Amino acid sequence: MREIDEAVVRTIVETANDHFFIVDGSGRVLDVSPGAAAVYGLARERLVGNTVQRLEAEGVLRPSISLEVIRTGKAAQLMQVTGTGRRVIAEAHPVYVAGRLERIVSRSRDLTDLQLLQDEYALLQKRFSEHLKRSQAAPVGDDGLDEALERLQVRSEVMRELALLLKRVAPSDATVLMLGESGVGKTAFARQLHRWSRRGQGPFVEVNCGAIPENLFESEMFGYQPGAFSGAARQGKAGLLEQAEGGTLFLDEIGELPLLMQTKLLKVIQDGSVTRLGDTRQRRVDFRLVVATNQDLARRVETGAFRLDLFYRLNVIPVTLPPLRERREDIPALVEACLTRLNQRYGRHKLLHGSVWSELMGGDWPGNVRELENWLERAWLSSPGDLIHSPTLAGSGAAAPSPTPPGEATGMAGLDDEEGLNAFLARAERGVLQTLCRTLPSTYAIAERLGISQPSVVRKLRRHGLRIERQSPLAGSRFNS
After folding, report:
1. Which residues of 394-424 are buried (b: 16+ CB within 10 A; e: fewer)?
2. Which of 299, 322, 345 represents a domain boundary (last residue)?
3. What are the percentages of helix, strand and coil residues in the chain, rounded to 5?
4. Do 214 and 335 fall within a single domain?
5. Each residue of 406-423: pLDDT tens digit?
6. pLDDT (tens digit, 9 = 90+) per residue, 107-121?
7. Which of 68, 110, 337, 401 lies at 20 to 30 Å from 54 by C-alpha?
8. Domain shared by 358 and 227, yes or no
């Protein structure tokens, strides 16, 4: 039996695509796979019998992952730069017998293969995007798209294309990887993908991988049986993976997932089953996986912080959401929606001062939609009146410029007898709009004057029964309503 086992091990080592090292507990190399010589720059005969300590000192292994296991006694994964200048991702596992470290088995993969796959996938994505552009005229794929874009406050063409891509992959169960800076709206688009999918009536379970403490992560994700640990609920608990049954599991900040949990998640993806803490029974799970990150996962793979095999599993349909500064057309709709929410939340009816609009459209917004919303709330709260100014202006005590010429809104400075605030604000709004309808040529010009979006102006005019009285001499221009 021992000869058979040795033959099996040798077959694995000599035929595997990965490059194997088998090292004893002191660091002496017992065996390597034949292909390792091309990567590490030494013949197999010179590697076998050598020590990982010497190979690291000579720059053949930079660093030695087997030496890391000897130092820590635990499995490890890291990025190596070999003596031939190649970059490989390596992982190693200790083998204990009777509590003593006897062997370290390591394997490495040349990242040149990963780069080739990434380049090939980027080309396929480009061709797919071009195909989507050519086929956008097909009405069957666009059903309900405009309604969803209105919900997402999207106006730019690039975001429309991304939404169309998500809509067309939604019926499948393919894993979607949402990429983009913090605050670009990855969660909102993940929810919309769920609505479009055949699982839209099922649960949408959102998990922020960076917000759950590592010591609680396994019990939260996988659940536990009664008595699994001290303080466990008497009836046990289904984990988040089980709670997503029949729906979508959205793992935000996937790059923050601890390495141990990465291994366990990979097993769930491969097997389609989960085992609760304290249980031996496997439970089948059926969910659609969507993940998001603002980090460069390929780079984290190179540094050993993210498993290469999990990266392959997640990177099926990568979708990159551009930052807000690259799609400024979306800012007016986002501002209008946020302003509506703020007015509802605080029970006021504030309007945006026209002087603020250039700051909104000209900002880089490194925090993207989240930063824009925070800025607007700060401006709303720091503006004492019913006109919203820049937070710095509002808090300085400086007199803000009047939104309309003197005398345009005369007669509206005070409340009428028994008139409530909402009625007064509606009357003031109608008076301002009525004046602007007489003096400006289009709803676009009114929107620019008031610092709100053109669709918002159209709705307000319709609500008050007003229309443009002055016609623009530029027939057919964008300023004609």
Report:
1. beeeeebeebeeeebbeebeeeeeeeeeeeb
2. 322
3. 50, 15, 35
4. no
5. 333 333 345 566 666 667
6. 887 765 555 555 555
7. 110
8. no
CB 360 within 8 A of CB 388: no
CA–CA dist 84, 251 (Å, integer): 38
Indicate whether 208 and 250 sit together in one domain.
yes
- Tell me which residue of 173, 195, 185 sits closest to 370, measured CA to CA: 185
The pLDDT value recorded for residue 126 is 60
Name residue 291's beta-bridge partners: 177, 251
For 413, the domain range is: 404-481
- Residue 68 Cα distances to 26, 123, 229, 275, 373, angstroms: 12, 38, 31, 31, 46
Q: Is residue 333 domain-shared with residue 312, that is, in the same domain?
A: no
Q: Are 272 and 286 in contact (CB under 8 A)?
A: yes
**469: its two tokens:** 């009285």
Higher per-residue pLDDT: 74 or 471: 74
Do residues 264 and 311 touch, judged by C-beta distance below 8 A?
no
Q: What is the mean pLDDT of the chain?
A: 80
Strand 87-97, strand 288-293: pairing: unpaired
Among 363, 386, 401, identify where a domain stops: 401
The enclosing domain of 386 has a CATH number of 1.10.8.60
Whether residues 215 and 259 share a domain: the answer is yes
142-247-221-225 Cα dihedral, nearest 10 degrees: 180
Give how many domains the chain has, as a whole number: 4
Same domain, 213 and 350: no
pLDDT at 321: 92
Q: What is the DSSP letter of 156?
A: S
Q: Are residues 244 and 347 in the same domain?
A: no
What was the pLDDT predicted at 116? 54
Q: Cβ-count burial of 476 within 10 angstroms (0-12 exposed, 13-18 middle, 19+ buried)?
A: exposed
Place of tokens 């390596």: 90
Do 229 and 377 fall within a single domain? no
DSSP annotation of 354 reads G
Six-digit token string for 173 = 């169960």
Q: Is residue 82 part of a domain?
A: yes
